[in-house]
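Anyone? Bumping this.
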Amino acid sequence: MSTPIELPKWADVSLVPILAVIVAFLVAGLVVLGIGENPVKATVLLIQGALGSGEGIGYTLYYATNFIFTGLAVAITFHAGLFNIGGEGQATMGGLGAALICLNLDFLPWYIVLPLAILGAMALGALWAFIPGYLQVKRGSHVVITTIMFNFLAATLVVYLLVNVIGKPGSMSPETRVFAASAHLPYLHEALAYFGLKIPKSPLNLSFVLALLASAFVWITVWHTKLGYAIRTVGHSPTAATYAGISIGRITLISMAMSGALAGMLAVNEILGVQTRLLLEFSSGYGFIGIAVALMGRAHPVGIVLASILFGMLYQGGTELSFEMPRVTRDMIVAISGLVILFAGALDGLIRRPVAGVFARFLKSGA
Amino acid sequence: MNPMAGQAPAIALSGIDKRFGEVRANSNVNLAVASGSVHGIVGENGAGKSTLMSILYGFYEADRGTIHIHGNQVRIRSPKEAIALGIGMVHQHFMLVEPLSVIDNVMLGAEGGPILAKGEAQMRAALAQLAETYGLVIDPDAVVGDLPVGLQQRVEILKALVRGADILILDEPTAVLTPDEAEQLFVLLRTLAAQGKTVILITHKLNEIMAVTDNVSVMRRGEMVATLKTAETSPAQLADQMVGRHVLLDVSKGPAKLGPVRLSVEHLIIRDAHSSLRVKDVSFEIRAGEILGLAGVAGNGQSELLEALAGIITPTLGSITLDGQDLITLAPTPAERREQGVLHIPEDRQRMGLVPAFSAAESMILGFQSDNAFGTGPMLSTAAIQTHTAKEMDLYDIRPRDASLKTAKFSGGNQQKIVLAREIEHRPKVLLVGQPTRGVDVGAIEFIHKRLIALRDAGVAILLVSVELDEIMSLSDRIIVMCGGVITGERTPETTSDRDLGLLMAGVTERAA
């Protein structure tokens, strides 16, 4: 029987994920080597693509914004002992919520329509997570099952609405009209230009600031409010929560709704910030990768922001890499992301155990 | 060692050292256990008993020191090697597969090849043999989950014996047994010793040491402080050795100053989630300034009764009144009960009383998390709960004095003190106490008992649920006994005996002896 040794906190939150990424890159390097490309060169290209130019950094942070929202959404349910894997559907519904406000109210000035649109995104996202939460509390149907079912429901509902109700009249493609300019969330380069600062053009928009605010909000809520205490108690020990007079059902509903609202905010970045119209499949897998982000970030907002930037780099750098090295296709990049998810999330113990072993030996010889 | 093999001790440990990081779990431990004897090892939690036994059973290897088994020096690197050397262990928590039969459990890991039939036949023969030699009779085809706890323990012992154990280590074996079952276990242990087996008994119950062992070793803070002949020692001497100072085993308490009836329970009926009847028409009352002891073997409805009183589960029928007010309608939830002054030290502190993953400060406010003393409005002030906890840690001598240390890292006694401090400091009118000293060391037991007595003298009505008869006898002003969901009798400590209570716990209701 091996002695369980707990890792120091710094090693737990930094060393283990960093090692996981390195191992993932080594394995990915073998794949690159296998198709006859130079893995070192590929890595350099990837990092250059992600961070080598202002535009690259802009794109990286734009992708990271999506991951922050979906990562936070998953993390908050982790703390309550729940597993919301319906980020895709909640983000889709968030897009619908934002679009409904914009399509109907975009004649109003931006300072009215934008906050309403953001609230609309949060509200429908929250609703789409609240219902599975309610079904679990009242009917015992597990949220893992229902949230994934709700992904399909959201997708088909939005297709129906785009084709039959809110789609642009006379258009063949299932999308709405472009919102009026008052309902466009400004790009960061536009916002900063207003203050006389010049940064390269990219899709990075004010949602990134919202994502950082959301991270701070989650941090404060989980660790510095009575609600967060109740959420963590339910997550760690439902029996202790019952003893303490905390209603598990109520906490389930609240944390699912908060989670859905955060996932819905992905639409703020994609729909209000970039697309300025509602279209299909804008959530494109961010909801699922949010699970990996939350795992890798140890469900802590700081970790989630860092993990999101890493995935943002993979997305952006990967796109550049597939331009430069045509043999490294888009699918290869997906495979590399997959490896990072595999090592950082699923195979966490693979890294943790040897690291713990090294620490144990170190402590023994040091003592 | 002794050249005459027949007289070599079954086990001789010398100079055993074991460190975990900074902690010296065992330091220079020497122990000789005579062949064919029952040897007790006592010590507080964290004294190093479990570490020592884990070294003997091959879970850990010692950093230094030697082990001799029957005079031969050995290295034990895994439980497998320990078994090969004839060492068997019966854990406190049974390692049994409940849905499987006795024979399946005994065979597990010793199936004797891919075809079961042959191994099973051999195993049945071995079991029959053991039944004959030691009187260990058990139906090999009974499903383990259906057996009473005492028989499940027999299966564990059989598992060890069938594997050829001639040294048997038992870790707190009576924690889950009725007095009767414990008595039967002791008879079995004596039989085993008489037949030449060597038995090591780890326990914190000094009466058991006195009842069944030949020799007893006392551990304190990783060291072996004394090895004595049981016949030449006393529980008081052992307790002092364990703690390293003089301990009052008997709780001194003055006569109760009874006030008016505080809590009154009438015709309470409780069904569990599977709607089977757990508490059947139970009525009693507790007065201010009184400790009512509720004795019974675990699982006879006490837990459900306690949870119903605390508002965690809702009784099917009956009434619970506090100072004449109906609590079931007036304060149905745990939070509302708390507001009414009904506080609760739960039986299972790990699962209910604390959150092991939380800091001590966070566990210290469990149940009182909405209190404005710990943060205004929706906020929770880490500084406020840390200061509060630091104060309580001083008052209740909770060690280490580190409010941000994870609750799981405190010893059982100190964890229990966290719960105790939390509930007492919120000024209970009625205190519901479940197993207050389970897994708690002697020093802390003394402390907890004194606090409960002080609380009773201050006019609190206390319901004490415990499976420890000693505790019930020494603390209670009145005792009720539950068996099978009904109260089988009411006694006072002066007019009853362990035997009398034991019979009531077994459901024998007519007054005996």
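Late reply, but here is one note on the structure posted above: Chain B has two domains: 5-243, 261-505.
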